[in-house]
Design the sequence.
């Protein structure tokens, strides 16, 4: 490949990449995948789309922290797109109970990371949102590269669909840094 | 480079720290390796795929998926003997040289990473196949040398054939996954391996009629299979967790049947049968899962989670009073459960409807 072609390709990737990232300003209500939230600080909406109904925000890059909004997942649908035909994504069933939805999220994250990482959950507890049944739980796992990540998940059932917000971040520094804001955001969702 | 890798492996969250399991496997390796024992370090990797591997610096990986599939100490000794044979025949050094002549460092690191996490770089798959085809003759040699090692320690060589026969049955239960397990990519086809092993055992049996040298220490290893069952039983939850997470229900079912025949604790086997059936969720599976959880709970040593999973399943089946009783049983046994609030929510809801 000539230097000129390489330069054009690099510029294209750089420019197109920049266009796809947008600022999410602090304090302004945002409707994301059917859930209205008002972040206390600014975030970046990424072009990354792990599922058909998914939107990903980050503060410091998706490798360090990400807030995934997944809305309106119907019966028989998965929350993430499959990354490998060897690792089919589990699907949501409208009669699922919290223990099964926790497993659904665990396996979806595991398969999204290519398979055999071990995702563990804890602290499952109820949390309703605008009169809709919901619950919350914590996550932890090590990435294939050995990075320890923690997570906080809220799941809301509305009209037999599943709605999720999944916050995961590097356990060291990044998770505690923004967790107070995540608590506030999860407590003020409008649907 | 492999030493640096070993440093990463030591720190890996996917290495099992269970002391009893590590001591047992390391002790077996030492007995088989004899004077080479100080040169070998064993790492049990939390990976549900059947695999073991040996590195040129003496680092050995044993996957939890191997421990789940081995039926007795003779079978475990057969696999470890095979890996030791690689080391003693210096196969890794030859393989490393071959890889280095192509694009070695990345590839061997990818293979190692795969051993630790099950994840491997897609870009290296082609090279990995090259390494695989190079290794097959070496694998056959290691099989025979490995059998020599276990025969010299008084183990039953026929158990190697039993193990491979079982693995073939399990693979046939789920053909779609067989190509994903790197062990089967780098080792002879299972049916070929069984034939070769049988021929070798027949040759050795006809040539050797006297008792083998260096037999078992009868005081310490009088009942090696009992010891194996005890160690696996105490680590069973750890070993099964990732197997269940694979959601390969047919393979899990075969494994559980095997574990029942082996005499592993019924309470644990029935609990995981319940988990498998609940996740599989085919017609009739919910009722079978309810029976499995109840079987688990009626045996000694049932996991406390059995009450909870049974309660959720009964709730789905709209058997409210039974669900309520099991939710209460769960909290009674585990008052500090981290999901207490969720369970209390269901208890309150069910009680309000009574």
Sequence:
């Amino acid at each position: 490949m000539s230097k000129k072609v390489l330069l054009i390709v690099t510029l294209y990737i750089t420019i197109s990449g920049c266009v796809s990232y947008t600022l999410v300003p602090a304090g302004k209500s945002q409707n994301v995948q059917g859930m209205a939230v008002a972040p206390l600080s600014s975030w970046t909406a990424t072009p990354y789309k792990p599922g058909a109904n998914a939107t990903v925000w980050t503060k410091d890059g998706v490798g360090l922290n990400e807030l995934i909004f997944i809305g309106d997942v119907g019966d028989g649908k998965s929350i993430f797109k499959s990354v490998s035909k060897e690792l089919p994504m589990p699907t949501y069933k409208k009669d699922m109970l919290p223990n099964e939805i926790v497993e659904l999220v665990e396996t979806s994250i595991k398969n999204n990371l290519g398979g055999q990482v071990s995702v563990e959950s804890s602290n499952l507890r109820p949390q309703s949102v605008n009169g809709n049944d919901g619950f919350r739980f914590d996550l932890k796992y090590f990435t294939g590269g050995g990075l320890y990540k923690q997570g906080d998940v809220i799941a809301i059932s509305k009209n037999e669909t599943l709605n999720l917000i999944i916050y995961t971040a590097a356990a060291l520094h990044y998770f505690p840094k923004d967790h107070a804001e995540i608590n506030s955001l999860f407590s003020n969702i409008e649907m | 480079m492999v030493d640096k890798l070993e440093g990463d492996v030591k720190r890996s969250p996917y290495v099992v720290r269970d002391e009893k399991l590590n001591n047992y496997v390391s002790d077996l390796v030492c007995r088989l390796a004899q004077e080479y024992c100080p040169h070998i370090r064993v790492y049990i990797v939390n990976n549900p795929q059947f695999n073991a591997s040996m590195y040129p610096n003496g680092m050995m990986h044993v996957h939890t998926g191997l421990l789940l599939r081995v039926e007795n100490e003779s079978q475990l000794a057969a696999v470890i003997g095979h890996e030791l044979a690689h080391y003693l025949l210096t196969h890794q050094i030859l393989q490393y040289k071959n890889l280095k002549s192509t694009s070695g460092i990345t590839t061997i690191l990818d293979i190692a990473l795969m051993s630790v996490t099950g994840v491997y770089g897609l870009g290296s798959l082609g090279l990995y196949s090259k390494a695989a085809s190079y290794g097959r003759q070496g694998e056959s040699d290691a099989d025979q040398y490995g059998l020599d090692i276990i025969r010299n320690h008084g183990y039953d060589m026929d158990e190697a054939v039993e193990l491979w026969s079982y693995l073939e049955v399990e693979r046939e239960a789920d053909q779609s996954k067989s190509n994903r397990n790197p062990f089967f990519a780098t080792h002879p086809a299972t049916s070929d391996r069984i034939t070769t092993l049988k021929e070798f055992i027949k040759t050795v049996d006809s040539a050797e009629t006297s008792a083998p040298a260096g037999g078992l220490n009868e005081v310490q290893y009088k009942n090696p299979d009992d010891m194996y069952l005890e160690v696996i039983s105490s680590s069973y939850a750890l070993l099964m967790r990732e197997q269940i997470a694979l959601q390969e229900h047919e393979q899990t079912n075969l494994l559980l049947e095997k574990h029942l025949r082996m005499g592993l604790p019924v309470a644990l086997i029935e609990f995981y049968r319940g988990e498998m059936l609940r996740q599989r969720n085919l017609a009739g599976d919910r009722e079978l899962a309810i029976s499995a959880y109840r079987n688990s709970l009626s045996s000694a040593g049932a996991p406390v989670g059995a009450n909870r999973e049974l309660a959720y399943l009964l709730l789905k089946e709209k058997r409210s009073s039974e669900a309520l009783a099991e939710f209460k049983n769960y909290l009674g046994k585990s008052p500090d459960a981290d999901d207490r609030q969720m369970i209390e929510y269901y208890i309150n809801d069910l009680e309000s409807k009574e």
About this structure: Chain B has 19 helices and three strands. Chain B touches chain A through 31 residues (CB under 8 Å). Strands of chain B lie at 41-45, 52-54, 59-63.
